[in-house]
């Protein structure tokens, strides 16, 4: 039995979906996630200055976290021609969506290394996804003053 806290349900399901597949199929699933990245809400589409660039990512990805009534909402944008980066952003956005602040902050920092993509993409790309999660958590802390 692990000493680490249980993952939130959405992130645990995403992790299991990836781990149930072979390496090539994991890349296909990542591409599917890239197509599921929600569009930015209109209020952010017109105010790109509110979004923070995750400079560690190889392609331009921008994020903004909202915390409303103690629940986390991550908005992200990445170019369609960068499906790996879009897929990472989509995984993190979907995985954090609606979590309590406490649950979101408890997501292990190494979550990106646990979903089986280390064998499928470069370490530089995994670092980008890790940075995306880290920046999201930092923004959550800033929003709640933690």
UniProtKB/TrEMBL annotation:
Residues 22-138 form the Fe-S metabolism associated domain. InterPro entries: Fe-S_metab-assoc_dom. It comes from the Bacteria. Belongs to the SufE family. This is Cysteine desulfurization protein SufE.
């Amino acid at each position: 039995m692990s000493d680490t806290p249980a993952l939130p349900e959405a992130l645990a399901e995403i992790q299991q979906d990836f781990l149930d597949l072979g390496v090539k199929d994991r890349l296909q699933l990542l591409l599917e996630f890239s197509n599921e990245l929600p569009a930015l809400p209109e209020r952010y589409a017109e105010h790109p200055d509110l979004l923070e660039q995750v400079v560690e990512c190889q392609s331009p990805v921008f994020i903004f976290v909202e915390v409303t009534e103690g629940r986390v909402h991550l908005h992200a944008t990445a170019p369609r021609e960068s499906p790996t980066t879009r897929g990472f952003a989509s995984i993190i956005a979907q995985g954090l969506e609606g979590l309590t602040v406490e649950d979101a902050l408890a997501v292990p920092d190494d979550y990106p290394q646990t979903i089986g993509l280390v064998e499928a993409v470069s370490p530089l790309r995994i670092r980008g996804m890790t940075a995306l999660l880290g920046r999201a958590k930092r923004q959550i802390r800033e929003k709640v003053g933690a």
